[in-house]
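Quick start: read one record
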Amino acid sequence: MYQFFAPDIAITSCLPEEESQHCVQVLRAQIGDKIQITDGRGSLYTAEITNPHRHHCEVRIVSEEHPEPLHEGHIHIAIAPTKNIDRIEWMIEKCTEIGVDEITPLLCRFSERKNINHDRLQRIMIAAAKQSLKVTYPVINELTPFNDFIAQNHHADKFIAHCADGYDANPNKFALQNCLTPGHAMVILIGPEGDFSEQEIADALKAGYKPVSLGKARLRTETAGLVAGMVAVLAGEKRDLHRGNSGSNPSQQR
């Protein structure tokens, strides 16, 4: 069953214009057809079409579900957009698919890109969320100066992935996967192509961010963002993975 996105569906009982057009003109939905709708905040509705209008398709909500989150904790990736915006758009698409909860574009000292089209990033996120059948959509924040971001009171475990001392030369830098606590909210900072400045790293450490490594391989910015997100998601899924998909004893699994 095709899934539509309507953030105000519980109030309006009507699909937004773009979703209405796709439902009625592309999929040829008729009165009485059943569709699934999410508000992007964790609710999944089964609805019946009552007025298949191409600009404001009206529905009657039949049932409402609240599926369990895919992972525990809130995963927030704060990352400097790349000079080639296609790369950061790709990262947002993939981070949406794997279940990252929040993404903040950062404006850093060595950022080569000083602006973003927030509306476009939002559209890319929504398309990826719909295609991967998410019911909870990530928050995509506006471009935020680095110092403003680290000054915010994030109630989370805070990490910075920098390569100023190489990936494994610094004995105080631990592998990200060994620093995560399942169920905890977390913020992970990823720098631009030129990495964070020495001052930014010092300021982040002073603000309580812990330096972490994403492995020995040299990663591009957008790859580092995706790797950090995947490591965090898997840490949040750890309890379910240990139980096995059916919840039975792992020794009974093939």
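The CA atoms of residues 123 and 129 lie 10 Å apart.
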